[in-house]
Amino acid sequence: MTVRKNVRELAASFGGVAAEYDRARPSYPDELFDELERLSGRSLKGARVLDVGAGTGIATRLLAGRGADVVAVEPSDGMAARFLVGSPGLPLVRGTGDELPFHDDSADFVTYAQAFHWTDPARSVPEAIRVLRPGGALATWWNVKDGSVPWVRALGERLSAALGETYHGYGAVNEITGHLAPHDLRVGSATLRWERRVTVDHVITDLTSRSYLAALTPEQRAPLLAVEREALLAEFPDGWVVEPYVLDLTVAVTPA
Q1: Tens of pLDDT along 111-162?
Q2: Residue ranges per domain, the chain?
Q3: Can you point out the beta strands (E) in the chain?
Q4: d(C-alpha 208, C-alpha 27), whole Å
Q5: What does 148-170 look like in DSSP terms, one character per residue?
Q6: Which candidate in 54, 137, 227, 249 could, as Cys together with 72 as Cys, close a disulfide (CB 3.0–4.6 Å)?
Q7: Crossing angle for the helix pair 150-163 and 218-235, nearest 10 degrees?
Q8: pLDDT score recorded for residue 4
Q9: What's the pTM?
């Protein structure tokens, strides 16, 4: 089966799986925010942060936990509703990275946690630069399952064969330096490796929240998830999965 959806349709699919997204998507290790502060040259504590494509608030809550004055920016009705349930004390603004609803020079950080690939970089990078104060930082990062691990690679190969062009394993979406090159920015990067231990059911729920599956009808999705459940149980018969992640961070700092 090959299912083709355009980017707008795929992005819109998240609203219907917001609960699954919030429940099963991986979080981020503390080291990510240590590296963000190191590469930007400034502390998150007290910093004005715009967390764009905030989704259900997984990264937003962690940024707030580091002492940031953070505002979530999210276009999806379903994701925004889930955000408000799980993050009642944090502000949320409806918008996208391609047209940020904020004044010039109004933020210290613009962050994209697993979200920059949904923007048009020709618009989102200049928008981030516009709203950043001198010395402010645009930060993008992605959690990607480590494809060098055999079972992870096999999962990706099965989904790619089933979904064709719709499937994306985040292959090169973290390579944003080409979009940053035309601008006067100091760019740095870091790669972190970490893992989490979750149940097979948790992995299946996580898959359900991925755009390439969320965009399918329940009838299309069910057999694909059944195949993955069977494969995971064959690999992990006790029902517990160790998921290895590679976390890629890029930070671009504007002139002071």
Answers
A1: 999 999 889 999 999 999 999 999 999 999 999 999 999 999 999 999 999 9
A2: 7-253
A3: 48-52, 69-73, 92-93, 107-113, 132-145, 186-199, 240-253
A4: 17
A5: TSHHHHHHHHHHHHHHGGG----
A6: 54
A7: 160
A8: 33
A9: 0.91
